[in-house]
Amino acid sequence: ETGVTQSPTHLIKTRGQQVTLRCSSQSGHNTVSWYQQALGQGPQFIFQYYREEENGRGNFPPRFSGLQFPNYSSELNVNALELDDSALYLCASSMAVGEKLFFGSGTQLSVL
Amino acid sequence: QKEVEQDPGPLSVPEGAIVSLNCTYSNSAFQYFMWYRQYSRKGPELLMYTYSSGNKEDGRFTAQVDKSSKYISLFIRDSQPSDSATYLCAMKLGNFGNEKLTFGTGTRLTIIP
Q1: What tens digit of pLDDT does each residue of A85-111 get?
Q2: What are phi and psi for residue A8, nearest 5 degrees?
Q3: What confidence tier does B99 reach under pLDDT thresholds 50, 70, 90?
Q4: Which chain B residue's Cα is nearest to A94?
Q5: Do residues B53 and B68 touch, judged by C-beta distance below 8 A?
Q6: How many CB pairs under 8 A join A and B?
Q7: Least Cα separation, residue B40 to chain A (angstroms)
Q8: Could you write out the three-class secondary structure of A46-97?
Q9: Does B106 touch chain A (CB under 8 A)?
Q10: How confident is the model at residue A15 (pLDDT cuts 50, 70, 90)?
Q11: Is A78:A19 a contact under the CB 8 Å cutoff?
Q12: Are B44 and A97 inside 8 Å of each other by CB?
């Protein structure tokens, strides 16, 4: 077990809705990253947070946003959902910037 | 052209065989190289983490990096049915603070008992 937990495990939304995905990192892991993994593809980097500040962003539009809290939990918010947002969303945490990343089991999001 | 290319497979081998998984990359700025194993409906699990060219061994797993050819490999010896999973290569730039991992598409591996 990596100590990284995500909720919910599965979620179904309709196009145009908003969604919030949650992640709880190990105690002491002050860096959290979010990835999107479409079916049959490798994970794609969305963004990373370090000490509650965004610290790098991939090629995703502003409707993807995040928050990191002092208690090692974090959120990924997606507004105006599109069909192509259907994917496995992975949270990964590390002890510090530059350290190894440990992934949670992900949230499977389906947009209908 | 993708920055990281990985043969998606699927790859099926008999139990006990040696498995070779490979990735090529185009960005010579990649400095850190990783292999992750992903079981169905699970997140990726870190197997190997390397920095320099050469070989790194951990039990039945050997990671090989050739920066001059922009080519990395993962070898699995004495393969077991429990090794059946999707294997993802991942790479990272060397500058501190840039934590984006770039993944290959993954190779689906099945070990036949």
Answers
A1: 999 999 998 887 667 788 999 999 999
A2: -75, 175
A3: confident
A4: B99
A5: yes
A6: 66
A7: 10
A8: EEEEECCEEEEECCCCCCEEEEECCCCEEEEEECCCCHHHCEEEEEEEECCC
A9: yes
A10: very high
A11: yes
A12: no
Q: How far apart are the first and last CA of chain A?
A: 32
Does B102 lie at the interface with A, CB-CB under 8 angstroms? yes
- B73: burial class by Cβ within 10 Å (0-12, 13-18, 19+)? middle
Check A42 against B43: CB less than 8 A apart.
Answer: no
Tokens 């974090």 sit at which residue? Answer: A74
Please tell me if residue B107 touches chain A, with a CB cutoff of 8 Å: no
* Cα–Cα dist B92/A11, whole Å: 31
Q: Cα B81 vs. chain centroid, distance in angstroms?
A: 18
Site of tokens 């490798």: A42
d(CA B21, CA B71): 11
Q: What is the DSSP string of B4-30?
A: EEE----EEEETT--EEEEEEES-TTE
Per the CB < 8 A criterion, the answer to whether A15 and A82 are in contact is: yes
Residue B95 has pLDDT above 70, yes or no: no
Residue B98 has pLDDT above 80, yes or no: no
Distance CA A105, CA A37 (A): 12
Q: Does B98 touch chain A (CB under 8 A)?
A: yes
